[in-house]
Amino acid sequence: MTFNDLDFNEQLAEGLLSMGYKTPTAIQQMAIPVIMEGKDVIACAQTGTGKTASYLLPVLNMIGAHPNHQIKALILAPTRELAQQIDQQVEGLAYFTEISSMAVFGGGDGMAYAQQKRGIDNKVDILIATPGRLISFLASGSLKLNHLEYLVLDEADRMLDMGFQEDIMRIISYLPAKRQTLLFSATMPSRIRQLARTILHEPEQINIAISQPAVGIKQQIYKVHDEQKTKLLSGILKSGAFTSIIVFSSTKDRVKSLDKELRGSGINAKAFHSDIKQDEREDILLEFKNRQLPVIIGTDALSRGIDVEGIDLVVNYDVPPDPEDYIHRIGRTARAATTGTAITFVNQRDMRRFQSIQQLIEREIEELTLPPELGEAPKFKEEANNRPRNSRGGGNRGRGGRNNGKGGKRRPNSGPKQQSSNG
Ligand code: AMP
How far is the CA of 16 from the centre of ligand 1 (A)? Predict the structure, then answer.
């Protein structure tokens, strides 16, 4: 399938061209035609798959190139960062249309609120919002959404994790009952299916195969003792082989101490975690995006939503507790159709977690040899029955592979009609 087959209006096709999108990704191929038919959709897809454009493109096309600037589409997102990134994608794709958009989010002071309010008053076609801030606009009566036709929930699982369920239901009570609703979620726990049953109308279900790392990511590990980790990391960062790097660690405290150690050894790095003020976090992201800051260190909070092109290395300083977090983390590199490297440090304690990752991705990850100056690498006992199922010794079937529905997590078993990338 090509974008031509999707028959977008001329202005949108021009926007696509200027964004450099050539072929639709798997989720786009599946979701766009269904959304253009006017159906509700529940889609299981992670960041990195092109999921944002998979709902933006059909919604932009349906709104048309010459809209009347009444809010037609509302996109709810869990965080300010994601809301802003969605807004940037709207701006890019809709550049040649008259569609206008705006992102509203919490944080900031009264002035920020007033500014966002003025922005909305200036009439927009697409509003992107975090739930808390939107509720305050709606409850004050200063915002009406009577003309709304499209509601999108992006990263719905994360919104529920962050406690937004009640806010979402309240927001929906302000919307016209007749609308098209699209729910996107990286995972499909039962709470999401429950939410979908409440707010979607006979939805079409779209699964792009169980989350798989993008094909362009070179995945590698080092087996290490804890005391070798920081030296190994400094060596990699100082090697000059990589220019835009994210280092993940599982706890905030570890991120903070790692930040100190790295800076102490002369590496230009900054920590990113929830103790840092929103404004400061945004500045850090901007510096990172602009290539003024080569290294950013964060927890899993950073692994979702951050959409920076050209990240060439992701380091897992420790193995994430949930194998799916591994996929989210390494998905920060090799964004749609580029390449990147993901290196994971595995100590004895994390060996089991690491094996769960190999099982999830159904491949063995290449092991690198520790530089000799760091001393002997540990030797771990490998449990024979813990090797990846269907192991293909380093083969990679990319993101369009079969949905194996492991753990029942990715294959909702009730309600909606199913579509999947396996046909
Ligand atoms: P997302 O999964 O929405 O976070 O998108 C990941 C990245 O892929 C973003 O930087 C998009 O701009 C980019 N992208 C989305 N669709 C395409 C496409 N069809 N071709 C190339 N890049 C794309």
Answer: 11
| Global confidence as pTM | 0.62
The whole-angstrom separation of Cα 45 and Cα 400 is 11
How many domains, in total, are found in the chain? 2
Is residue 421 predicted with pLDDT exceeding 60?
Answer: no
Cβ atoms 361, 388 nearer than 8 A: yes
21 lines ligand 1 (CB under 6 A): yes
In a domain, 391, yes or no: no
Q: What is the mean pLDDT of residues 287-308?
A: 83
**190-199 vs 165-173: helix crossing angle, rounded to 10:** 10
Which residue type is seen at 237? L
The structure tokens listed for 369 are 């040899």
Ligand 1 pocket check for 311: Cβ under 6 Å:
no
Same domain, 205 and 316: no
Domain coverage including residue 21: 3-210+398-421
Q: Report the residue among 19, 59, 184, 311 best suited for mutation to probe ligand 1: largest number of ligand atoms under 8 A from its CB.
A: 19
The CB of 336 under 6 Å from ligand 1? The reply is yes
Pair (57, 120) in one structural domain:
yes
What mean pLDDT is predicted for residues 350-360? 90
